[in-house]
Each structure stands twice: as structure tokens, then as C-alpha cells.
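Entry:
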Amino acid sequence: MVAALLVAALSVAGCAKDTGGGGGSGSSAAGCQRNPAPAGPAAVAEPPEVPPDLNASNLKVGLSYDVGGRGDASFNDAAAAGLDRAKSRLGVTDIKELTAAVGESEDASATRLRQLVDGGYSPVIAVGFKYEPAVVKVAPAAPNTKFGLVDSTAEGVPNVTPLLFAEEQGSFLVGVAAALKTKTCHVGFVGGVETPLIQKFEAGFKQGAKAVAPNIKIDTKYISPAGDLSGFNDPAKGGEAAKGQLDSGADVIYAAAGASGSGAFRAIKAASTPQSPKWGIGVDSDQYQDKNLADVRDIILTSMLKRVDVAVYSYIGAVATNRLDNLPKVFDLKVDGVGYATSGGNVDDIKPQLDAYKSQIIGGAITVSPKP
């Protein structure tokens, strides 16, 4: 009996030493059994080529942001980064930026696009799936204007180029990170609006986490239903959603919620202690680097990079060279269209595992479903 008790005590002590980081085969955090990272050759992403000496100063570029606009520390800021790169590298100087209002009508969206068309801007880049009806209405009446449409398509309209992403692939990688870092074997997903697009983030995150830890618990909460875009711009509700998951035991939360994600991060920051750290995972941009989130950057584990900046910059370059056919149909891991951030060094210890999964996805050994 004494021997049995000693063995049990040693077992408990061994579990107590496990930090939940690293996450090698058989490691345990609150009962998490983690699979080893897959083996295979390394694969490298190759972004679309834009000639380094390209001069696009003759272009007038119009860009219409989604709700939150430049400064949302997320999706719109990624688009703004691509526009800024076109300024610095391609010489684009004539730019007009407009922003959607919360709860605006489709007519208001169409009016904003017409304003850019009437101002002689081409290309006109519409940022977000909410613009699809407006683009379908405006683009056919302006056949000489080129339109880029982020996150959606405009079937049958020849002067519209869809800029689509494999969000599920990047989300898979941050799901892997969450499963390797959790101490409670319990993580969460906070979505802004329950649409098929945001469900791609949820789907990839869950698949990545389950690939590492099949028995992990994953909470899901959407801030607003489909059709109500306020979920992308409500930090208070983002905080409430995150707090509910923290209270139920989650210690890593992925917020794919636009500007609402800042509220989730602040709830995580309030709940985190040195003895019981909590982590947030950002989305779209490298949110650790965002100056508006400087007060919470210490709890940002990583961010799923949706490279809207790569798509916007590549699209402007393709318009300037009249080679729209060179653009990828989907901006995925192969073309550096999605990925994960390393700022802050919080995933340095698990980078080999993350890159192993990344290589498997690029090489086709792992297929990530876009549906939860």
C-alpha cells in the first residue's frame, strides 16, 4: 500500500510540473493527451509576385472599408496595410478611403461605391462580404472601372475580381497553438457574426485543436446572428463572451470578431495571473503589434494572419500590369495568404510543431474543412 501511494504521489507531482507548453506526444494538461507533430518535408509559402520596379503612380485607388474602418486593429487594418504598401512600393498617391456605418442599408453601401466611381477611381476595392449586393448593383453600370471584392464574389460581373482566403487553414494553426498551450485542456472561440465566413475560422480552429488534443473541450460563442453586423464592433459584448468562457474554465480564447476582439482581450487580461495565465489569440492582423492593444499585448499568444494586405497589394499590382489572371483563386497557406504571428515570442517554443502542421497543409497531407 505504501508503495502504491508513493507511485500515485509521484504521478501527481509529474502532472503538476506540466506547464501545457511544448505539448509533445503524451504530454498532459488537465487530462489532455497530445499527439506528436506530423513528420515530413518542410514547405515554403510563395506569395504572388509583384515586379519590384513596378510604378503604379498613374492609378487612382479607392478603398471602402467594412464597419470599424482603418484603426479597427483587425480586418480593416490588414486592408489598410496593403494600401500603405502600394503607396510606399508602387508609388500610388491618389487614394480615397471611405468606411461603412453600423447598420447601414445596401443603398448606402452602393452610394459610397458610386462616389468612388464618379471620382474616377479604379480600381475600387470593397472590403468585406457585406459589399457583395452593392458591388453587383454598381459594377455593371461602370464597366470601365475595376473592382476588387474581399471575402465574396460577384458572379457574372466581369469587371469584379474576388479576393478570397482560406481562413480555415490559418485558424487550424492557431488551434494547434491553443491546444499546445492550454493548461486546462479547455479553450474557446468567440465569433463576431454567425455567418459562413466566420464559421470557417471556427472550423479551422477546432480541427487544429483536435488534431493535437482529441479530447480537448472547445466553447463557442457568437456575438450576433447572421444579418446583424454589430457583432464586429461591440467590445463590451466581446468581453462578456470571453468572460463566460473563462468562467467555465477556458484558458485560451480565439476571438474572430473584428473590433469586438479588443473587449475579449481585456476580459482575458483581467482574468490572467502569473499563477494561472490566460491567453488570447488575435485575428486578421498581428494584433500584438497594434498600438491600440498595447495594454493587453502580454496576453496575446499569437494571431491568425489573414493577409488581406497581401491580397490588396497584389491586386493593385495586377491591375497596374493588367495581369489579373495571375492572382490566385484563393489566398491560402501556399501563397502566404494566411498564417500565424510570432510577435512577443509566446509561440517560439512550439514553432516547430506549428510549422510541421503548416507543411502538411501546404503539401496536401492535411485538408482543412471550411465547415464546423
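The CA atoms of residues 189 and 220 lie 5 Å apart.
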